[in-house]
Every structure is written in C-alpha cells, then in structure tokens.
Design a protein that fits this description.
It is a multi-pass membrane protein. Its main location: membrane. By secondary structure, this protein is mainly alpha-helical. Strands 1-3-2-4 form a 4-stranded mixed β-sheet. It folds into 3 domains: 34-238, no CATH class; 240-413, no CATH class; 416-469, no CATH class. It has helices at residues 8-21, 40-65, 69-94, 102-109, 113-127, 160-198, 203-231, 241-268, 270-294, 309-329, 350-374, 384-409, 420-436, 451-468; strands spanning 31-33, 135-143, 153-159, 235-236.
Length: 469
C-alpha cells in the first residue's frame, strides 16, 4: 500500500502557504525534525559519578589501613546513600519495575546503573537517523532574537530516538543534583574537616575533594539552567559560553566560600555547627510547606498516576528535603510551589533572591568572625585576618558575578521588565526621596510598587509575549 503521508518539505510548504494566505496567523510555523545532539550531559554525569565513587573507595581503604574507623564509616556512608538514591531515581524515571529487564535491574543492584544507562543513551544516539521513524509528538517553541521573543513560533517533530534521549538527559539531570548535594557536598565537607584536623593532605583525599567540588558546581549549574528552562518553557533558550563562564565563577565561589566557612567554624565550635546546620535545614524544609498551608492549597494531581495522597506527600517531602539541602550550600535558583504540578514558582522573585544572599552573607561573616575569636592554636602560622578577608571578598565576588549574569548574560534578560539595574536604581531613588521628604509628607508605602508587584508586571509582559507569539 502506498504511503500517503506527506514529506517534511511538503508539510513546510503547505503551512507556509496557509500562513501567507491568512495574515492573522502568527507568522510561519516551521515543521521539521528536531536535531539530535550527543548526550554529553549523560556522559559527563556518569564520569563524575564513577570518578567520585572510585576515589572515595580508595580513600576508605586508606582509612581502614590506618584504623581511622570514623573517617572510613562516614566516607562509605556518603558514597552509598547518594548512590542508592541515584539507582532508585534512574529506575523510577525509566519505569524498569514494570518491564522485563532483569539485567538492568541487576546492574542497578550492583550500583552500576549510571554506566548501563549511559551505554543505552550512546546506543540510541548512534542509531538515530538510520531508520526513519514516525514522530511521537510535536514541540512548539518561540525563537529568541537578540534576547526578545520576536521570532515566529516553530514546531519540531520529536521522534522516538529524540524522546528516549530526552528521557535519559532528564534522568541524569536529576541524578546529578542528587549526587551533588546529598553526596558530594557532605563528602567535601568531611574530607576538608579531616584534612584540617589531621594537619596533612593525602593525595587520594585531595583528588576526592577536587572531584566533589566539580560535582557540586556542576549540580548547581544544572539547577540554574533547569530553572531558566522551566520558567521560559515556551521559548527556545540557548546559553552562550560567556553565560556558562559567569555561572561557573558565580557558583564555584559561592560554594567554595560557604563550605570553607562551615568547616572552619566547625573546627572551633563543633557543637554549634550542628545547630547552625539544623536551623538552616528546618527553615528551608518548612518554608514551602508553611506557604502551602497559609494559602490553604491542595496537593497537585497527576505527579504519578499510581500515587495515592500518601505517596504524593512522601514524594513532596523528598523534593522539599533536596531543596533544603541545596539551599544550605547555595541558591537553588527556584522557589517551590507545592500546589503546582511542576512544583516550581515560575515568577522570578527578586525579593527572595535579595533576601537569601543578604542573610547568607551576614551568616557567613558572623561564622567566620566567631571562628577568628575561638580558633585553636593550629592557625598560629597562618595569617588568619587575611583568610577572613579572603572569604568575605570571595563571597562578595560570587554575588557580583550573579548580578552580572542576570544583568548581561541571562538568555532571557530582555524579557525582564525590570532587571537588576532597574531594581537597584528604584531602591536608591526611593531611599533618596524618603530622606528628602519630611515625615508628614512621606508617601504611603502602599503607593510604591513592591518588588513582588514589579515581578507580577514582568510576568504579565512575558505572558503577553507568549500569547502574541
């Protein structure tokens, strides 16, 4: 039987003719097959997972030979816990429990799930384009021209291979975040603390610390990119190399300064650092739930078809716990909305960003000053005032690179109605007017637009652009 399905160029010509005949249409809708890109993110996440696992195992063996039972036990714990969570995440995303795949499940039991998944992704990519496949769905995006959504909307056919690669990429993005903030962050903190306490550096320990730092920075980059993609889902977002460089400097300095501050503080006040960590954990864990209860919202539906209300609550608690662990180390780049299906508040709230970095800067300065006054005699041969200044300056540089990214390097910065410069200028002008006016002529605070109100206007403009596209 002859195949009557039109070819790609025929579909494009028909759509172009229809769009030209009807000027009310929003430009020309281009329909073609989406290009498959190599799964570099999958390969990189797998390399980081294996490298950290191998280095941590070798370091545990070294601890065993030197009878350091405590360091060995904690190192093994920070290997196995994120590894088990990674296997469960990959199994859950690919729905292996409902499929007859005993070999894959066996590999997951051996903690080698990321390796077999990476091989599967590479095989799928190598087979892409060899056999013509019918598309599964169509993805509609709006191209950004010079940072604005002025280009016509276009549609891409998503084939089976592209869909499988997308599933692999999304799964490894989740595992990269889990590995970074539930495994690499406590691992780096532990090894840095052990180095200071033992007063010498093992080569294996140094290698593990470097790999853990790279893993945490990569996880923070994934969080930032995912936040942009979720908030601007209708746009074709492309990150430039300068944006990645700025984000690496921002995230690297922020994480390194934060972990160093906590470790130094723990060497002087060991009990109090536990209290500081628990307070941070409880604040960020319960903050989304308090907002959820205040609004009297209901649990989101269709997170997973087979989940009951109890299962949905358990999943939300795990997501909130991961969210809290991320915010202890660095800015998570998103605000959770437990009533939304995507679990993310898509309004970019500058007030939350400003409050987080202001309070975090004050906390870091307080902790490092307390360490300076209660430090041990081990630091007699180190210029501690210079170290304090370096940590404060490095965190300040991280904040500066964050502002530079949002002002100049953000791929959707021209969709902002108010950017960093506008918010700073508005705040300065408001303070100047307040200082010039007498108290009886001071304007009502309600007459001034709050940052949240500015964000609402910004979001309305973005929504108008989406509807007009």
């Amino acid at each position: 039987m002859e195949n009557n399905k039109p070819k790609d160029h025929d579909i494009t010509e028909v759509v172009a003719q229809q769009s030209a005949a009807n000027p009310s249409e929003n430009g020309i809708v281009v329909i073609n097959h989406s290009k498959s890109h190599p799964p570099f993110s999958v390969l990189w996440a797998t390399v980081l997972f294996c490298a950290e696992f191998i280095c941590a195992s070798m370091l545990s063996r070294t601890y065993r030979k030197s009878d350091d039972v405590v360091w060995m036990g904690l190192t093994i714990t920070f290997i196995l816990v994120p590894s088990v969570l990674t296997q469960l995440t990959l199994t859950f995303v690919h729905r292996d429990l409902g499929r007859d795949r005993p070999f894959v499940l066996f590999m997951h039991l051996l903690q080698m799930g990321p390796i077999i998944r990476c091989i599967e992704a590479l095989v799928v990519y190598c087979q892409t384009g060899k056999n013509e496949e019918p598309y599964v769905t169509i993805s509609r995006k709006v191209k950004l021209k010079h940072g604005r959504g002025l280009g016509p909307a276009f549609e891409c056919e998503i084939g089976h291979s592209e869909r499988k690669l997308a599933i692999h990429r999304n799964a490894f993005k989740r595992t990269a975040i889990i590995q970074a903030f539930l495994g690499s962050t406590p691992q780096l903190t532990l090894q840095l603390y052990a180095t200071i306490q033992e007063k010498y550096v093992l080569p294996t320990r140094l290698a593990l610390m470097i790999i853990s730092m790279i893993s945490i920075t990569y996880g923070a980059l994934v969080c930032s990119v995912l936040a942009i993609q979720i908030k601007y889902d209708d746009y074709k977002v492309r990150m430039k190399p300068t944006a990645y460089l700025c984000m690496i400097l921002w995230r690297g300095l922020e994480i390194a300064t934060r972990i160093t501050t906590l470790v130094l503080f723990s060497t002087a006040l060991r009990v109090w650092v536990v209290l500081v960590g628990l307070i941070n954990l409880f604040i960020f864990f319960f903050q989304p739930w308090v907002e959820f209860w205040v609004r009297k919202a209901s649990l989101p539906e269709n997170i997973e078809k087979n989940f009951s209300k109890l299962g949905t609550t358990v999943v939300l608690c795990m997501v909130t716990f991961l969210y809290a662990c991320i915010n202890i180390s660095c800015w998570s780049a998103v605000q959770l909305d437990l009533a939304d299906h995507d679990l993310v508040d898509k309004q970019p709230r500058w007030r939350s960003l400003a409050v987080y970095y202001t309070l975090r800067f004050m906390e870091n300065v307080t902790l490092i000053i307390l360490w300076y006054f209660f430090k041990s005699d081990f630091y007699e041969y180190i210029c501690t005032p210079l170290l304090v200044v370096q940590l404060i300056v490095c965190y300040s540089l991280a904040v500066i690179f964050m502002l530079i990214f949002h002002q100049f390097c953000h791929p959707c910065r021209r969709l902002f109605h108010y950017n960093v410069e506008d918010c700073l200028r508005c705040a300065c002008c408001w303070k100047e007017k307040q200082s010039q006016l007498p108290e009886d002529l001071a304007p009502d605070p309600q007459e001034h637009a709050s940052p949240d109100h500015l964000i609402d206007q910004e979001t309305d403009i973005v929504d108008d652009n989406m509807e007009a596209a």
